[in-house]
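Quick one, probably user error.
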């Protein structure tokens, strides 16, 4: 039986809630030396509207009051991943050399893609991060991902796709844990209270292809191409 998007977010929350209340989140060791992290990737992504990003930022400020020592995404770093062309490698050069071939596949798919809408409603979490729940208004995002996978496989580059996991959600990572929690139960309770907060909707009228670090840091993201959807 196919698992619904809401079921996926709910299962993530159950796993995260258990880890948080036990005080055993998965801490990201790379954030202790973020400047020295050499992992790079290339990603097709969607940026939320300014209004959605600001509402998320206001909510993160509430969490930061409880857990100031964690890593919080800036509004300009929030994104929904459409597809990772290659993910988090310390040796990106062979993949970067193939970017013209990736572009050939991507260009033809996105030229035929029309704008669509994403709704952002509530927070969930994993044992490692806080996530904004995203919901496509229709099947367009799933169809786009499948078309991109097929086109990239057709040019012989499919082996680089979905190496960590096959992305099926429309979430935005908003915070990551990298230091022990000050008050695990208070954080878990705060997240529980935000499970259904509405962050608004975004019309997706443009998709970006970027080179990026693991955290999509503003000072380490290089925009390769912006694709307007028509």
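Nope, works fine. Designed sequence:
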């Amino acid at each position: 039986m196919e698992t619904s998007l809401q079921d996926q977010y709910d299962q993530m929350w159950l796993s995260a809630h258990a880890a948080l209340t036990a005080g055993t989140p998965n801490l990201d060791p790379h954030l202790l030396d973020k400047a020295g992290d050499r992992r790079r990737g290339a990603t097709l992504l969607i940026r939320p509207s300014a209004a959605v990003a600001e509402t998320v930022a206001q909510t993160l400020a509430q969490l930061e009051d409880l857990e100031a020592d964690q890593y919080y995404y800036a509004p300009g770093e929030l994104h929904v991943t459409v597809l990772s062309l290659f993910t988090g490698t310390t040796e990106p050069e062979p993949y970067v050399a193939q970017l013209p071939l990736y572009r050939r596949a991507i260009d033809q798919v996105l030229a035929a893609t029309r704008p669509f809408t994403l709704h952002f409603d509530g927070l969930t979490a994993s044992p490692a991060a806080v996530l904004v729940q995203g919901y496509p208004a229709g099947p367009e995002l799933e169809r786009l991902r499948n078309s991109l996978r097929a086109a990239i496989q057709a040019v012989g580059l499919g082996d680089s796709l979905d190496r960590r996991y096959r992305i099926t959600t429309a979430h935005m990572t908003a915070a990551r844990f990298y230091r022990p929690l000050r008050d695990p139960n208070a954080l878990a309770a705060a997240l529980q209270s935000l499970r259904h907060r509405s962050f608004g909707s975004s019309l997706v009228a443009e998709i970006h292809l970027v080179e990026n670090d693991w955290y999509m840091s503003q000072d380490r993201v290089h925009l390769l191409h912006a694709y307007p959807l028509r």
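The two ends are 35 Å apart (CA to CA).
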